[in-house]
């Protein structure tokens, strides 16, 4: 079956060079060539046989788009390379033929749900603040958490001069002997160390942190360090931008 032509901006986005809107700007600025000719109008369609260059450099071969869900273990960095020589999430997916990259990041000592893909367009959409993708964490914190203590998180707290968006938060367990609590927190922002900073702000330092859910993905059936391919239905849901955003009344 012959390949169906795709819009040029979509191909550039899938190659991971920019979002689709960013790719459209590249085209409009005359930075893209197809088969040696500058293309500066939108709507042009290309096939696998076309030679595409951006700023004079050919885009990487259009590999088959793949999508994986990883249960990231502790002691692994969310990056392609680590200057300190630590194990990376890509080391775990070493047998994957395509060159994938993580969507967002998790801290070195944070575990849980992490998507990896070579679909730049989907990755950019997921990470864009406007998408408001839900991320649910389970945190083990020092101290006996109370509803009153967590209440400010539901309205947002100021961290480094910026107020966080309202979060969903609940106490799931309290250990009075060890003076620790388990707190579930759902946010849609992605600031650096955000969950740790939010809980520290209300006097509950985090001892352990696990991301239990990302968008509509959970970790059922995945042990730490295990990963799986997304189903066709899950991929279609991502491509349709159906991220089940956190909605508040």
TrEMBL record:
Domain spans labelled RNA-binding S4: 6-69
Organism: Leuconostoc pseudomesenteroides
One Gene Ontology CC term in the entry: cytosol
Family (UniProt): Belongs to the pseudouridine synthase RsuA family.
Keywords: Isomerase, RNA-binding
Molecular-function GO term, any one: RNA binding
EC number: 5.4.99.-
InterPro entries hit by this protein: PsdUridine_s_RsuA/RluB/E/F_cat, PsdUridine_synth_cat_dom_sf, PsdUridine_synth_RsuA/RluA, PsdUridine_synth_RsuA/RluB/E/F, PsdUridine_synth_RsuA/RluB_CS, RsuA_PseudoU_synthase, S4_RNA-bd, S4_RNA-bd_sf
Domain of life: Bacteria
SMART domains: S4
Pfam families: PseudoU_synth_2, S4
Gene3D superfamilies: Alpha-L RNA-binding motif, Pseudouridine synthase I, catalytic domain, N-terminal subdomain, RNA-binding S4 domain
Protein name as it appears in the record: Pseudouridine synthase
Record-level GO BP terms: enzyme-directed rRNA pseudouridine synthesis
């Amino acid at each position: 079956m012959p390949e169906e032509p795709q819009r040029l901006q979509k191909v550039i986005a899938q190659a991971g060079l920019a979002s689709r809107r960013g790719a459209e700007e590249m085209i409009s600025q005359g930075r893209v060539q197809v088969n040696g000719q500058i293309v500066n109008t939108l709507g042009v369609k290309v096939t696998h046989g076309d030679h595409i260059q951006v700023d004079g450099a050919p885009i990487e071969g259009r590999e088959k788009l793949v999508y994986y869900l990883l249960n990231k273990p502790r002691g692994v960095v969310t990056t392609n390379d680590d200057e300190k020589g630590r194990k990376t999430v890509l080391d775990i997916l070493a047998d994957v033929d395509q060159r994938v990259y993580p969507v967002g990041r998790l801290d070195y000592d944070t575990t849980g749900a992490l998507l990896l893909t070579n679909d730049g367009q989907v990755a950019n959409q997921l990470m864009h603040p406007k998408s408001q993708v839900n991320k649910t964490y389970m945190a083990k914190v020092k101290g006996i958490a109370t509803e009153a203590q967590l209440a400010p998180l539901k309205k947002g707290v100021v961290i480094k001069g910026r107020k966080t968006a309202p979060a969903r938060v609940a106490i799931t367990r309290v250990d009075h002997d060890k003076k620790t609590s388990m707190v579930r927190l759902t946010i849609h922002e992605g600031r650096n160390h955000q969950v740790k900073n939010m809980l520290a702000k209300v006097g509950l330092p985090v001892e352990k942190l696990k991301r239990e859910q990302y968008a509509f993905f959970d970790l059922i059936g995945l042990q730490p360090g295990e990963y799986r391919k997304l189903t066709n239905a899950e991929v279609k849901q991502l491509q349709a931008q159906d991220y089940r955003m956190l909605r508040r009344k």
